[in-house]
Design goal:
globular
Length: 271
């Protein structure tokens, strides 16, 4: 798959991973539509790459339908849709302690927003027998995120939905990829400057992630792991589930002993 002249919509692209993907795809020749719940940030990124910006609340299916229709009518049919928007809010106490509001927000943004995007673009992609659906999930969707059960559970659901898309539509000419990174130096992780995490092992910059993602998309890989170590962790989990759970419990215990909590913004700095 080549990016040249492809029309790509990216959600949550006003900053972080989404913005980095927008810049990388544009650099490779794509026409990028930058969407975000913060329109001003989307406009800044779009201005950098000669793209187009739209306001989009991904929890509202009508927003996604509106953007897809407008892009199709005024720019071109959508070749690639990247469902990137995400949240990670943690939990105050036990694994079920996050509020219903937080659980619902994670479900709406990490799962239903991906469903809405596919509903909007799949009919046309099926007619054209071409297209590309990209879901930004997380290594937490393959493993787990200590300290945020809502995030972990809904990212697992995102991976499962991506698998269903690939099983159902790959033979119709529609590519599917799911991106499962670990820690990336974005505002979600507390970084305003992408290079601020250089001293922390295992944390990569959004630009590094975007380059690796674009390379793997060109190779039409389903499972995209910007952090290669994740493949080994997956193998360990699959080979001995009980041992993997035990190792995760030990890691959580070390985090609690050192930090007094399981705040993911702090824990990644010494893992």
């Amino acid at each position: 798959m080549k990016f040249t002249a492809k029309t790509i919509i990216i959600t949550g692209a006003g900053q972080g991973i989404g913005a980095a993907l927008a810049r990388e795809f544009s650099h490779r020749g794509a026409n990028v539509v930058v969407t975000d719940i913060d329109l001003a940030k989307a406009q800044v990124v779009a201005g950098e790459i000669n793209g187009t910006a739209f306001y989009c609340d991904v929890t509202q299916e009508s927003d996604i339908q509106r953007i897809v229709t407008q892009v199709r009518n005024t720019i071109a049919p959508v070749d690639i849709f990247v469902s990137n928007a995400g949240i990670c809010r943690g939990e105050p106490d036990h694994a079920a302690s996050a509020s219903n509001t937080n659980w619902q927000a994670c479900w709406d943004i990490h799962v239903m927003a991906h469903v809405y995007a596919c509903r909007a673009v799949l009919p046309d992609m099926k007619k054209r027998k071409s297209g590309y659906l990209v879901q930004v999930a997380s290594a937490a969707g393959l493993l787990n995120q200590i300290g945020d059960a809502a995030y972990s559970a809904t990212k697992h659901a995102s991976v499962g939905f991506s698998e269903a898309l690939a099983i159902t539509h790959r033979d119709e000419g529609i590519n599917v990829s799911v991106i499962c990174p670990q820690y990336v130096a974005t505002p979600m992780l507390g970084y305003d400057e992408p290079n601020a995490a250089e001293g922390f092992p295992g944390v990569i910059s959004p630009k590094t992630l975007a380059c690796r993602v674009a390379d793997d998309m060109q190779a039409e890989r389903f499972m995209i792991l910007p952090h290669p170590d994740v493949a080994g962790f997956m193998e360990f989990k699959a080979s001995n589930y009980e041992k993997w759970l035990g190792s995760m419990r030990k890691l959580r215990s070390k985090i609690i002993t050192k930090l007094g909590n399981s705040n993911f913004i702090e824990m990644h700095k010494w893992m």
